[in-house]
Design goal:
heterodimer, A: 137 residues, mainly alpha, B: 70 residues, 6% strand, globular
Chain lengths: 137, 70
């Protein structure tokens, strides 16, 4: 019927990268949780605690590499949308952290747990993606 | 920038998904370009034009008067 000018995503990457991504995400999250749990146990010495603290790094780096590879496979339009989503997430996270810092100085809230910042980023990224996708619809 | 993409696609009786597959982009990209919400970069503009056997100027029309000589 018509000739394709470039190969489809499936032809470019036959190794099911989405499945690999989810496996790495689930295993990486399990290691994150396990490392956090181990660090809360008082029975381990300082050397073991350092190992527990750096345990999540390898799979998290693999996750970063998979995400970067996926971004490079996106077409220019989707990259544009995701760039806006990242920019919105970056700015809203900054605003949220600033406001939280002032509230902390006003002794209204407890000191910020840095693990929460990651959740802010993910939530604001989702909001940013919805805003950007809606804008270009 | 105005585009004749929707008209050319209708002439070929292609769906947005088919055109997206032909040029190797997402369907969302085709929707955004057809609705004038997104201007493609040159490589994609050339691919789209080539998919219809046209020149870029026959598919996309630049309408900014500020660059024209007075």
């Amino acid at each position: 019927m018509h000739e394709r000018l470039i190969p489809t995503a499936t032809e470019r990457s036959p190794s099911h990268p989405a499945r690999i991504f989810w496996v790495v995400l689930v295993v990486g999250t399990a290691i994150d949780i396990a490392a956090g749990w181990l660090l809360r146990q008082p029975d381990y010495g300082p050397h073991a605690r350092i190992i527990f603290a750096v345990l999540p790094i390898p799979l998290n780096l693999v996750l970063v590499a998979l995400i970067v590879r996926r971004i490079r496979q996106l077409d220019e339009f989707l990259r544009h949308v995701h760039l806006e989503a990242v920019a919105i997430a970056f700015l809203l996270t900054g605003v949220a952290v600033f406001v939280y810092g002032y509230l902390q100085q006003a002794l209204v809230v407890h000191p910020l747990n840095f693990g929460i910042v990651w959740i802010f980023m993910v939530v604001f990224y989702g909001i940013g993606y919805l805003i950007a996708a809606r804008h270009y619809r | 920038m105005k585009t004749r993409l929707r008209v050319l696609r209708a002439e070929k009786e292609w769906t947005q998904a088919q055109l997206a597959e032909v040029v190797g982009v997402s369907r969302q990209a085709i929707i955004a370009i057809e609705n004038g919400k997104y201007d493609p970069a040159l490589p994609l503009a050339f691919k789209l034009a080539r998919a219809f056997g046209k020149n870029v100027e026959e598919v996309f029309v630049w309408e900014d008067d500020s660059l024209q000589e007075k």
